[in-house]
Amino acid sequence: MKVRDVMTGDLLTIDPEASLQEAADLMNRRGIRHLPVVHRTGRLVGILTDRDITHMAFVPALSEYVSWDPRRLKAPRVRDAMTWSVVTTDPDATLVQAGFIMFQRRIGSLPVVENGRLVGILTERDVLAALHKVQGTEIDPDASAW
């Protein structure tokens, strides 16, 4: 089975200059935990996760140790919280290869890039749902909030 067979292709993305509050609201409304960050040129530049947003909640408490402009502390942008070194996969990679990368790197999603263009995202829920479907395992992808 290939990544393209199970990835989510109908993507929500966000610009790195968007406010972190806007991104958090979007993620909450849509019930997603991973949001690809795409520059206005269309290039994938990172990923924002619910964990990144949670970590940013500690920044004001640590502000005396962070050498940021105080305006950034009051109105953080997506670029301030996102993960810049995003790991990606190809749509023709096998599900086993992609799942192994996710397991090794301890990440919950992989943006799917083809010819330099973001075409989808593979999440751990997608992997579990595919395993459930193909192998008939007793895994319910909705039963656990990873």
**Share in helix:** 25-40%
As a percent range, the share of strand residues is 15-25%
What is the CATH C level class, in words?
Alpha Beta
Q: In CATH terms, what is the architecture?
A: Roll
The dominant shape is elongated
Query: How widely separated are the two ends?
Result: 23 Å
- What is the number of E strands? 4
How is the biggest beta sheet arranged?
2 strands, antiparallel
Please summarize what this structure is.
The chain has helices spanning 3-6, 20-30, 50-56, 70-74, 78-81, 95-105, 124-135; strands at 34-38, 44-49, 109-114, 117-123. It has a single domain, classed as CBS-domain (Roll).
Question: How would you portray this structure in words?
Answer:
- With 146 residues, the protein is α+β, with helices and mostly antiparallel strands.
- It has a single domain (3-135), classed as Roll (CBS-domain).
- It is built from seven helices and four strands; from the N terminus they run ααββααααββα.
- It has helices spanning 3-6, 20-30, 50-56, 70-74, 78-81, 95-105, 124-135; strands at residues 34-38, 44-49, 109-114, 117-123.
- The strands form two sheets. The protein has a two-stranded antiparallel sheet. The protein has a two-stranded antiparallel sheet with strand order 3-4.
- Strand 3 and strand 4 (117-123) form a beta hairpin.
- The model has no long low-confidence stretch (mean pLDDT 86).
